[in-house]
Design a protein that fits this description.
The protein has 348 residues and is α/β, with parallel strands linked by helices. It has one domain: Arginase, Chain A (3-Layer(aba) Sandwich). 34% of the residues lie in helices and 15% in strands. An eight-stranded parallel beta sheet has the order 4-1-5-12-10-6-7-8, with helices on both faces. Strands 2-3 form a two-stranded antiparallel sheet. A two-stranded parallel sheet has the order 9-11. Helix 3 (64-79) crosses helix 4, helix 5 packs parallel to helix 6 and helix 9 (302-313) runs parallel beside helix 10 (332-344). The longest helix has 20 residues, at 122-141. The radius of gyration is 19 Å and the shape is globular.
């Protein structure tokens, strides 16, 4: 198994932001990385410093204007003569029929909600989050061997996370859609990619990007999105369109689902993947399904993450795990250790 990270993932530090009529302290903070990096160290696992792959794979998924906004938006925001605040955050949402004249208009066009502010060093972390994920994809693309090796299971720290990021919109703490970027990149060599998402929230960005395609399966286990973020997607009836019909499969869980129920939905998702028979599996892993997480609407235990890892590994396909959500900092180390132990456990 290989694990990838980069020191720049900790630079993004969002400030308190206004949402749902009140101020919120950010949950997606650099201290998450501090705790998660303790897990591989405790298990004696090496963490590889990610190398730069470049902008090409990002622009294969995201619109150029949107990426330019992420890259330069903070500087443009701060250059405005009026004091707009210390981070790019819009209260105006006009994604369509918006020429993007001025940074306020660009923010209105490219920020889908108020939970993805851009602060001084955000772009550096956003970029390196995608590069870190791309290192795992590159390892598979450059692996010519047929035998089992350390590219069969790979794990990437993905901060800031990505599954809510749409083709041209940030939201839900997400900016670049790392799962979609590496799935598209892997299509250079592999015919079929499956993305399984077990984060507490539905990944509407992944769904949108591949909704009309049959070469990338997206299946998601998440909390019922009625009055729960992202609020407008993640329903069972969303099955894809055109060639993609049937290749988008959602399993919304009733709020309050216990661990047994969670795994019943995960097993259904796994059955869908087995039917699809992909060449590579990308797992969007969210620790926000943990029972004490502030975002949790289900009750997964620490031991449950070991079971989840065992189920992913048992699919016997090349596996790339992206560590995304999870905001109960006190247990991130323990929960990731449990997951890693399930990945490295030898078959009896």
């Amino acid at each position: 198994m290989k694990i990838y990270s980069h020191e720049n993932l900790s630079l993004h530090r969002p400030l308190p932001y206004f949402s749902y009529g009140k101020m919120h302290e950010p949950l997606e903070i650099p201290e998450r990385m501090v705790e998660m990096l303790k897990a591989p160290a405790a298990l004696g696992l090496e963490v590889t410093n990610a190398k730069e792959v470049g902008m090409g794979p990002i622009l294969a998924v995201h619109d150029f204007g949107y990426v330019e906004f992420l890259k330069h938006g903070y500087d443009e925001w701060m250059a405005v003569e009026e004091d707009l605040g210390d981070q790019v955050q819009t209260g105006i949402f006009v994604p369509y029929d918006n020429p993007g004249l001025g940074i306020m208009a660009k923010a209105a066009k490219y920020q889908a909600d108020d939970s993805a502010p851009i602060s001084e060093h955000s772009w550096i972390s956003i970029y390196w989050s995608a590069q870190t994920a791309l290192n795992a994809a590159e390892a598979l693309l450059n692996d010519d061997s047929d035998s089992s090796n350390d590219t069969d299971v790979q794990l990437c720290f993905s901060r800031p996370p990505g599954h809510h990021a749409r083709k041209s919109a940030a939201g839900g703490f997400c900016y670049l859609n790392n799962a979609a970027i590496i799935a598209e990149h892997l299509r250079q060599k592999y015919a079929k990619i499956a993305i399984i998402d077990t984060d507490m929230h539905h990944g509407q960005g992944i769904q949108e990007i591949f909704y009309d395609r049959s070469d990338v399966l997206y299946t998601s286990v998440h909390g019922d999105t009625v009055n729960f973020y992202p609020g407008v997607t993640g329903h069972e009836f969303e099955r894809g369109t055109g060639e993609g019909e049937g290749y988008n499969v959602n399993f919304p869980m009733p709020h309050g689902t216990d661990e047994e129920g969670f795994f019943e939905y995960v097993d259904k998702s796994i059955d869908t993947i087995k039917t699809f028979d992909p060449d590579v599996i990308v797992h969007v892993l969210g620790f926000d399904v943990y029972k004490d997480d502030p975002e949790a609407r289900c009750k997964v235990s620490t031991e449950g993450f070991k079971i989840l890892a065992q189920k992913m590994k048992a699919l016997n396909k090349p596996l790339i795990v992206l560590v995304e959500g999870g905001y109960y900092i006190q247990k991130l180390n323990d929960n990731l250790q449990a997951f890693l132990s399930g990945l490295i456990e030898k078959k009896s």
